[in-house]
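To assess whether ligand presence alters the predicted conformation, the chain was also submitted together with nicotinamide-adenine-dinucleotide. Input:
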Amino acid sequence: MKKSILITGGAGFIGSHVVRLFVNKFPDYRIINLDCLTYAGNLENLKDLEDKDNYVFSKVDINEEKLLEKVFNDYQITDVIHLAAESHVDRSISDPLAFVKTNVMGTVNLLNTARNFWKDLNNHLFYHVSTDEVYGSLDNGGYFTETTPYDPQSPYSASKASSDHFVRAYANTYGMKTVISNCSNNYGPNQFPEKLIPLCIHNIKERKPLPVYGKGENVRDWLYVEDHARAIDEVFHKGLPGQTYNIGGFNEWKNIAIVELLCQIMDRKLGRAEGESAKLITFVKDRAGHDLRYAIDAQKINKELGWEPSLTFEVGIEKTVDWYLENESWLKGVTSGDYLHYYEAHYS
Ligand code: NAD
Ligand code: TYD
């Protein structure tokens, strides 16, 4: 095997697309998917890879030092692509410590394990996958560039900002070869239906209210998840050590516009009368500290690594809706049990 790459959080939304891309595109790499399978992790997402010779799954929490060391030893890990995290802003508001434990302490534990295991730090890469939310909120226009000062506003973004700083500190202090990418909001198959797009698809299907926070004026910049996975491939192979790359599709939408678009698409696909699903739109209490706008300037990754999104939003959102409609059992599986608990507590 040319490389033995540890991908953390591979059973989650973005991780599952990254693992699939790497396993299929690079048969001479061994891909170790390390994930402790929280509510957001689901091996169903990777069913098609179970029989692949270059794919291994390991159920481990990134905070479990001894088990991590064993995985590094057993598989002679050469590189890390780190995605494991608590990822939902609303959950970070109700339970910030869970985000500190996984996103901050888990990341430092992983950095330590890699540093201790790798004899020559020059030969190995630690790639940390992060979010544009570390830059804060663009209330007065403009775009996030790689030099925008960090200004995280939610417990989630504060925990991711902290983990980014630790990665840079390991590069600076110990000479570890690291790279970081900060991506905008992703959408697509396998996303847990607590985030805006899959939640609305699920609720429209079930004729449940579509909770729009505040006035729905907040803006997010959306990227199809497979395009993010392709960007991660480029950054992993061509990114310069110590660098940061912003990833985004120049695709800004107000929340209310996305929800209305989903209603239109679903009316058409479900054979409902035009305007029927939009009646489900319900304006609810705003999220505490709700960031107004995110928008990525993705010129650096485009110019330096040649990456650009392959799908328009119109195509990506149709594909996404189709996937959720065609994968009813996946949706049923993840929306039973605990999900209802959380959902009911959150919206009642
Ligand atoms: P997700 O919540 O869908 O998946 C996270 C995965 O990490 C799950 O499989 C979960 O089981 C695993 N995990 C959580 N805690 C763990 C722990 N302690 N040990 C081992 N595994 C653990 O998240 P996602 O949306 O796929 O995001 C993946 C990464 O990308 C995160 O680091 C996130 O901050 C970043 N990111 C996400 C977005 C987005 O729009 N979703 C955008 C930019 C960056
Ligand atoms: P989300 O998908 O949670 O991603 P993030 O908070 O990381 O951007 O939310 C996207 C936007 O949609 C955000 O502005 C909050 C808003 N939102 C709602 O209006 N209603 C909802 O039920 C959810 C989950 C989000």
